[in-house]
Amino acid sequence: MKRLPILLFVLLLAVSCGRRTAEEHPVRIIFDTDLGNDIDDVLALEMLLNYEREGRAELLGVTLCKANPHTAEFADGYLRAAGRGDMPLGFAHRGVTPEDGSYLLPTLGASFDGQPLLSPERTADELPEGYVLLRQLLAQQPDASVVLVAVGPLTNIGNLLASEADEISPLAGRELVAAKVKRVVTMAGLFGDEFDFPEWNVMCDVEAAQRTFHLCPVMLTTTGWEVGNRLLYPHESILNDFGDPEASPLAVAYCHYMEMPYDRQTWDLTAVLEAVEPGVWFDRSPRGRIRIADDGRSTLDVAAEGVQDYLIIPQERTAAALEALVARTAGKTPEQ
């Protein structure tokens, strides 16, 4: 008479363990970034590397949407310094924002104790076009398994969605995304009534942003300018959480981006946080379709069948969300 309850308990335990294993599987992520423009891209990359070290994410590749060759050198050097010199890299050879910016060259030229902080081995000329690498990486992954995180101008993502079938995959870009991508998380747009201007990532390549939001066939969540604007990364963390600031590529880049001390908005970090920990720190708008006007302004047309939304951060959750962002960037493990 007691065997049935025991068998039932064993069965329930097995199912529970199976669910736990599935939930704890690392999130497969491809990161599209304009490293070299704002400093939050560097912090967001560091967050992803820390998530990977913890086994919570698997970074499949990095595509660069800033068309400056030093962006590729910085990315390669930074990843090598983090032990990920094997990371696939793509580059938007015909992209936007070709300027050097304020921190790429100083960080690439920095040294500590007689050794360069960054030692890149790849140049932009050696890298495939960003959307081509995206096709290659997606074609290799299981169906509905990848989260695309895009935190710069949407050049590479727009080109991916508009791409045609080729030797990489018999699927056109939109079909390939529909097959392989579970979710897209972007840092793009501006929502709500507090501010009214076109967001920078969108304005840099309006056509690519329009193409992305119009063609994306899977769930797309964007974090608007207003979210990261409320969460300021504390400069004290830069000076204290990464060892000697002169020996840390992240700290050196941060200190060259603007005159210290300054606390920078965390736009790109919010996208990474939502991608790896969905639904934990932010609320989301009603679903619908995000529309990008020709002047770059973004609006959401609410529709029950929509597959797009944007993040909302309640005032009472800002302190906890900022604490989480800082902890994950600095490689700490706080309580949720």
Structural class: alpha/beta
Query: Strands of the largest sheet, in order across it?
Result: 3-2-1-6-7-8-14-11
Please write the CATH class name.
Alpha Beta
Summarize model confidence as the mean pLDDT: 93
Residue stretches low in confidence (pLDDT < 50, at least 5 long) are: 1-23
How far do the termini sit from each other?
A: 43 Å
User: Radius of gyration in whole Å, from Cα?
Assistant: 20 Å
Q: Strand-and-helix sequence, N→C?
A: HEHEHEHEEHEHHEHHEHEHHEHEEEEH
Q: The CATH topology is what?
A: Inosine-uridine Nucleoside N-ribohydrolase, Chain A
Model description:
The chain has 336 residues and is α/β, with parallel strands linked by helices. The protein has a single domain, classed as Ribonucleoside hydrolase-like (Inosine-uridine Nucleoside N-ribohydrolase, Chain A). 40% of the residues lie in helices and 20% in strands. It has helices at residues 3-23, 40-53, 69-81, 104-108, 130-139, 155-162, 173-180, 200-204, 206-215, 225-228, 235-240, 249-257, 267-276, 318-330, and strands at 27-33, 57-66, 89-96, 111-112, 115-116, 146-150, 181-187, 220-223, 232-233, 264-265, 283-284, 288-292, 298-302, 308-312. The strands form four sheets. An eight-stranded mixed β-sheet has the order 3-2-1-6-7-8-14-11, with helices on both faces. Strands 4-5 form a two-stranded antiparallel sheet. Strands 9-10 form a two-stranded antiparallel ribbon. Strand 12 and strand 13 form a beta hairpin. Helix 2 (40-53) runs parallel beside helix 13, helix 5 (130-139) packs across helix 6 and helix 6 (155-162) crosses helix 9. The protein is globular. Residues 1-23 have low confidence and may be disordered.
